[in-house]
Amino acid sequence: MLKTRICATVVCLDGVAVQTRSFGFFQKIGQPSLSVHYLDRWGADEIFVIDITPRSGSASPDFELLRMCAPQTLSPLAFGGGITTVDHAIRAISSGADKVVINSALLDHHNLVSDISNQLGSQSVVVSVDAIEGNSGFEAYGWRNRRPSGIPVVDLIKKCEDLGAGEILLNSVAKDGSLEGFDLDLVADVVKSTTLPIVVSGGAGCPSDVLELVDRFNVSGVAIGNRLNHLEHSVAIFKSALASRAHVRNEALSSYNSHNLTDQGRLLPLDEDMLGELVYERVVKEVI
Question: Catalytic site residues?
Fold first, then answer.
């Protein structure tokens, strides 16, 4: 049985890692390469580095950002942001990415998926679909003009599957950064319409949110951003809270399986007897 991937997302704006909310509010975190370094060491199964810096149509992706981040992780790294040509995708892979993430360019050039897939293989192509609820259901969200595109999410994903996409990163605009749980209605619409692996993003606030998702749907993984940013060993603790009820990898350098955790995935204090044992151990001096 395949294990559910617990992926981490590092969103970058003007070279700085940021937290996001509803694709419109950004809070600075720090250096992206440091975020990637720690998320890898804490046990992320995959890391998405997504650059949302506005750029003109002729501007290249920030390959320097990628080259700084890639050496910091042994986990697979998927890079997105401004990839609009096959050459961009090839340069991203050459700069250390394992996969490329295609988003905004899809709305103008669907064949970009097949072009990259034919050149690099479908396993290298992640289609990122930002979804927002419109008058007639969930529509793909246009990042450039900040409005629904009018293209049904399900139709766009089916098209990308036919063109050779290897995976879907499904983002909920409304749930982004909310820490209120995933948009399960959106996921329900998508999973029944495609055979592609789905990684769900937007809304993860605690382990129970992930459990609710994987109990109901056969998704390949979840991508978590804000929830993992400010807590030491965050991925390892999150996985430990899931370990007893979800089929996840739990092979980080640190493990919290023997600790008591709250429903929010936070550590509870150890009991007094155990704390007492950790304070000191008396060693009697040997007399010869």
Answer: 14, 130
